[in-house]
Structure formats: structure tokens, C-alpha cells
Amino acid sequence: PAAMPAFRQVGEKQLPQEVVFMAWSPKRDLIALANRAGEVLLHRLANFQRVWSLPPNENTGKEVTALAWRPDGKILAFGLTDTKRIILCDVEKPESLHSFSVDLSITYMHWMEVTEESSVLTSFYNAEDESNLLLPKLPALPKNYSTTAKIFSEEKSDEIMKLLGDVRLNALVLGGSSGFIEIYAYGMFKIATVTGVAGSCRGLCLSSDLKSLSVITEIQDSSDSEAEITYFQASKLDTSLLSSYLPEVTRMARKFTHISTLLQYIKLSLTCMCEAWEEILMQMDSRLTKFVQEKNTTTSVQDEFMQLLLWGKASLELQALLMNQLTVKGLKKLGQSIESSYSSIQKLVISHLQSGSEALLYHLSELKGMALWKQKYESLGLDASGIEEAITAVGSFILKANELLQVIDSSMKNFKAFFRWLYVAMLRMSEDHVLPELNKMTQKDITFVADFLTEHFNEAPELYNRKGKYFNVERVGQYLKDEDDDLVSPPNTEGNQWFNFLKNSTHLKESPLLFPYYPEKSLHFVKRQMEGVIDQCLQKPADVIGKSVHQAVRMSLYKTSQSEDSTPQLFKLPFLWNDKTSNIHYVLFTMLENSISKIYILRRHTDTSRSVSNGILAVDFGNFLNNSINESSDSRCYSCLDAHFYDDETVTVVLKESVEQEGKERVLAQLPLSSVYTDEDQDREFIWDSTKRLDEQSGEISTRTVFLENQWRVLENMKAQYVSVNGIRKVSCVLSSNLRHVRVFEMDVEDDGEVEEEEEEETT
Question: TM segments (predicted)?
């Protein structure tokens, strides 16, 4: 009697959209899917339940072409072709924590973790927290602003720390069209731009000791006009610079990651400030503009108010407008809302912008210290002068923020005086009782009100087309404008002793100790400038490290047949795997032979100088479905549809019987490598002729026939085509050829020894 089927099915679903990519979480029983509609979905293993979905939007994009999990399973990265962006998404809720743009569209992503241990690294991992001891915790952004600020606003979860993740180095490797390969440390900071690889990337694998990077690319050969012929090459890039400077690379990347998160934080604080500002404008616009528009006398609003201020008596018209349009209640409300918006902008500058930029200064200064330690960091491309410029740029930003504080301060004074004065005037008009303490108006207050009137109600026609028509509330707003225009009314520096001192001193003008000050520019402008300078100094290591990468091996594998073009590229073999313990890269791929697609396993050592015996082998599956054919016939009757490494010892395959007959079953099976790499026939080592493609010399490759004992299961009623597995969690997900039908399995269920023995007896 046949044994029970292996692997337990735990869920099955028909999905509404075609799935184009799937990836299991490395740490939990979650699988991420991307579909044709551009959604990213997260499903649980149990019953294939949906946890959340992230619909496509204009900020991210619509065409997902790659997915990768951070090795700790807390962050999911996906790449979008149409917007050329990479989004890092929180696993707990569908929210983008960080995103960046790349130059070309991404076709493959691989996120790995460094497993090397060394005393230097351990001491660095432990010292990571020293910045937390020295720097105050960044205050959370206020909740009441739009979604942009969501990231840092949940008080409980420290989202910045979640983004930074574990201090052990992990690297997100991106591959794209026309030889584009970039490595991002911690998924955020670009640590290398690799050049010199031809073709668009189909698979990437960076070894966990950072010694080598395997790449599989597809090259379009358009010399033949009718059929575009594609061949794959597996190139091994030697990345030994990264591995030999591992502690330095880790430390530098960590600093850069801190800096990126801080820039993000400052950007969001500014966004919140702009929103608070918009709030003021709307209030002013709705109340006061109407008020001014309905005025039809020749005198200007400013004059009318001035008259009220000086003689305490308003023209009838102004009186009517104030009482009917504005009303006492309305005035009170307007005053309160404007005051609260101003003070929230002030709070954001004091607590958020300043603490963010101080932390930036701290990390940049540390980085500068690293750059000056030449023997360790010079070869990685850290450059002290660039960092020096970045520090200066941050200084200028802090100066600008302080200037804004002063402007807000004076605006608030005038505003308060004006509203208080107008409130009293209106109470008098309506002949209400005026409290005596409101009635006291000092000379100073009168000056404030007069200032306010000249500033805000001056008839400046060039301001009419901006927001805040007819009156000018640009004093604060001009700092928050994201435009390159100069400030409309820059602060008045006449008679400022420090400025005069600077002007007259020859030496201080050029002094590197003084941060340059841009009196004509807005806060946004200075922030953009700061970002540019910092980007510039973070850019250099990527180029230097990228140039150090050189190609060690290059092999042409095979041509693809045109027929399979309909399948989404994301699933097509070849598949790369890195065995961390023995430092071997494996490549799995299939080649057609007598209309049977046969699976090949190629293995190479990550240390490019060492070779591995049995560099390449083909695998045949002996007959194990006893029902279909009589025993005498050819045993080679299975085509391999998809193959993935399950763990270092096993490959999971989807097979189909290749004999044309009814009821062709698809089979999910586990192929142990131990049955492939046996110690027999070591003598027939395949000699590679590098002038030819592999498929032209496949006859020379030795083939192993493997009989699967009980590690297989027939997939009934399903045209299974693709499989995605996770050996750590021992799960697999099979997808049908129409890309809509999913089945999930737990792969090793039989943990009870007794059951196994019984089963073995049964099978024997």
C-alpha cells in the first residue's frame, strides 16, 4: 500500500489577481505576494489568511518587480519598475518606513546578513548604544498632521530604531536592467555600485562572508533580427574589499544609516511645520479676504485700520464690515487658532528640528574622525573634506532654523497685540462692557499694532497672486516655501553689532569656524542644500568600493527558448543559493533535452581561487509514480518545472510527467543533495570549455539518477508550476501555471519516530 502523502497541506486559495512574486518571511510563517495589479499582500500560513495589503499609489508605483525580506523578518522591501523606487515596508502594518530612488528598473533583490564573527565586530556591536547615551531621544512628531508624519509619531514604537534594525551588518543587493547592480547596507545606505556586468539581472547572491557576489544575467543578442537570442551567464564578482574591511564597512554603514534616518526625520518635521502654516493661511484667507474684498471705498484697508488705531473711531464702512463679517466671536476664534498654529510651528523648530540637526552634527563629526584614520578608512573612500562640508551645511541649517524662531517670535507679538486691540475696539462698537484690564494699551502695544498693520496689510500687488491675498502673512511662510526664490522680506540686519563686526573683519569672513549664513534664502532651500552636500559625501564610498569589485569567473550557460516568454520573469530559473557553512554558491537551472527539461546543479566556492569537485551535475528522477508506465520503459520521464533550495541539504522541485497521456500529475518533491553528490564516479570530472555555452556541451556532463523514497507528494487537481520555500520555517507554497491558485504545505510533519518506522514498513 502507498504511504501517506508527505508534507501536510495547510491552506489553499484561488486569488483574484495573478501573483507575480512570492517570498516567505525568514522568521515567521508569513508569505509576501505581489500581484499584477501592483498590490503587495501579506498572508499567514494558516489557511492562507490575509494579514494586510498595500494597494499601489502614486507615491510608490504600480509594477512590483522584486521582493525581499530583511533577514530579521521585520521589514519587507519591494522594488517598483514604473517609478524606479525601492520601498521598505513595516511588517506590522502596510506603511512605507523608508524609500529611495534608483537609476534603472530593478529586476531582482536579495537581502543577506553577514555571519562573520570577530572580536572587533563584537565590541562594535556592543558600543552601538553610545550615541543613545550622549544624544537625547528624538521627540515623536505630533499626531495631528497628515500621513506623512505617521512613521515617527506612534509614541510606543520607536520606528527609527525599527528601521535601523539589528546592528549586525545586512546588505540589500539590487540588480536591474543593463548591468545595474547596487549594494545597500542595512537596506538604506548605498555601499557599492558595481559596474562591468552585462545584461539584465536575473539572480543575485552575496556570500555571507562578503567575499563574492554571484550574478546571473540575461543578455539580449540582437544580431539575428528574427529571434532575439538570450543567454545566461553566471559571473562571480570578487568583493574581497568588503570582507577584508568588514569591521570598518560595518561601522561606516551604520553611521550613514543613522544619518539617513535623521534626514528623513528632519524632512518630516518640516512637512509638519508646513501643514501648521497652511492652517494659518486657510484661517486668514477665509475670514479676512472676504472682509477686504467687500470693501469699496478708495482708502486702503491699512489706512482704515490706522485711522481706528489713532482716533479710536472707525469709518462706518469698516464698522459694518467688522461687526457683520468678522463678529466678535469670529475674531476670538481666529486669534486663538492662529496663535496655536504659530506655537506649534515654534515647538517643532525647537524640539524636532534642533534635536534632529544636533544628532546629525554628532554623527557627522564621528564620521569625520573615522575619515581621518586613513589606514582603515581611506581605501573605502571616506573623505574628510567632504564630511567637513556636510558639517558646515548642517550648521547653516541650524542657523536658519534659529532665524525662523526669531521671526515667529516677533510675528506672534504683533499678532497678539493686534487681535487684542481689535477685540477691544469691536467690543466698544457693539457697546459691550470692556473689562478694565483689556483697556490698558501701552505705547509699546500701539507700536506693535502699527507694525502689524504696515507689515500685513501693505498693498503689495506682487503678493496678491500668492496665498494670503490682500494682506501679507509671508513673514513666516516665506521660510517654509519649497521654492528657489529668495525671501520676500528678509530679516532686517541693520545695526546688528555682530553683522557689522563680521563685515569689517578681514579674517573672520573666510573663517572655517563660522557657518555660512544665507540671509536671502528660505529654510527649505538651506535644507535641500544640506541634503545635497550630505548625499555627495555619502556617494563616494559606493563608487570606490564598486570599482574594487572585479569579475572572477564568467560562464555562458544556455539560450532560452522563446516559448516561455509568457511567464512572469520573476519565477524563471536559474536560482542561486549560498551555503553559509561550507561557503559554496549553488546555481540551479534547467535545460531542455529531448523535450524533457532536466535540472542542473552548478556549484562554486565563494573564495574565487578555490574550486569544488563536481562543479556541475545533471539530475534525473527515477520512476516513483508506479501507476503510470510499465517498469521496462525509459525511467527518465520527469520534467522539472521549478526548483528552489529548501536548506543547505535539500532542493524542493516541482515535476511533471513528460509522457503524453491523460491525467498527467504534477509532483512536489524534496531532493536531498546527499543523493546527488555521492562519492562514486569522482573520476568523470566535467572539463569546462569556456569558449562554448554550457548547453552546447551538455553531453559531457555526468547525470545522476535519483529515486525519491517518500519525500514527494502528488498535487491533485492543480497545474502546479512554481514553488517558493522556506527551510527555516519548513514551509512551501505552490503556485499554479495560471498564477492564481495557491497551495501551502508544511514540509516535515512526521516528527514522531514511531510513525516513521510504521510508514517505512508499509513502503517496504
Answer: none
| Residues 587 and 525 grouped into a single domain | no
From the number of C-beta atoms within 10 Å of its C-beta (0-12, 13-18, 19+), residue 653 rates as: buried
What ranges in 106-158 are assigned the alpha helix state H? Answer: 119-127, 130-134, 150-153
**Cell numbers 501507476 correspond to what residue?**
627
As a whole number of angstroms, the distance between CA 379 and CA 397 comes to 31
Give the C-alpha separation, 105 to 139, whole Å.
Answer: 36
Residue that is written with C-alpha cell 515535476 in the block: 655
B/e letters for 54-91, b = 16+ CB within 10 Å, e = fewer, are bebeeebbbbbbbbbbbbbbbbbbbbbbebbbbbbbbb
pLDDT, one tens digit per residue, over 218-232 is: 877 665 534 455 666
Q: Of 19, 1, 170, 12, which Cα lies nearest the Cα of 568? A: 19
Whether residue 598 sits in one domain with residue 510: no
* Residue 80 β-bridge partners: 64, 85
Total count of domains within the chain: 2
Q: Are residues 579 and 531 in the same domain?
A: no
Same domain, 392 and 294: yes
With respect to residue 129, please indicate whether it lies within any of the assigned structural domains: no
Domain match, 523 and 592 both: no
Answer whether 184's CB lies under 8 Å from 165's CB. no
Asked whether the beta carbons of 205 and 213 are under 8 A apart, the reply is yes
Q: Are residues 542 and 577 in the same domain?
A: no
Q: Which residues of 32-51 are buried (b: 16+ CB within 10 A; e: fewer)?
A: bbbbeebbbbbbbbeebeee
What's the rounded Cα separation, in Å, for the pair 472 and 509?
Answer: 34
The answer to whether 212 and 585 are in contact (CB under 8 A) is: yes
CA distance 712 to 452: 83
| Residues 513-556: tens digit of each pLDDT | 888 888 888 888 899 999 999 988 888 888 888 888 888 777 78
Count of other CB atoms within 10 angstroms of residue 374 = 10
The pTM for the full model equals 0.80
Domain-embedded: residue 610: yes
The answer to the question of residue 294 being in a domain is yes
Instruction: Read off the pLDDT of residues 622-672 as tens digits, 9 standing for 90 and up.
Output: 766 654 444 444 455 788 888 888 888 888 888 887 665 555 678 888 888
Q: Give the confidence band of 172 by pLDDT, cuts at 50, 70, 90.
A: very high
Residue 609: is it exposed, middle or buried by C-beta count within 10 angstroms (0-12/13-18/19+)?
exposed
For the chain, the average pLDDT equals 78
- Enclosing H/E stretch for 371: helix 354-372
Residue 108 near residue 175 (C-beta atoms within 8 A): yes
Based on the fold, state whether residues 531 and 610 are members of the same structural domain: no
Contacts of 643 (CB under 8 A, 6+ apart): 573, 575, 588, 590, 599, 651, 652, 653, 654, 671, 723
528 lies in the same domain as 596: no
- Does residue 532 sit in helix, strand or coil? helix
Residue 520's pLDDT is 83
Which residues, including other chains, have CB under 8 Å from residue 7's CB and lie 6 or more apart? 668, 713, 732, 745, 746, 747, 748, 749
User: Which uninterrupted H or E stretch holds 539?
Assistant: helix 523-548
Q: Which of 210-224, 616-630, 677-691 has the highest mean pLDDT?
A: 210-224
In a domain, 472, yes or no: yes
Place of cell 486691540: 421
Phi, psi of 668 (to 5 degrees): -105, 130
Domain range for 583 is 1-11+573-627+635-751
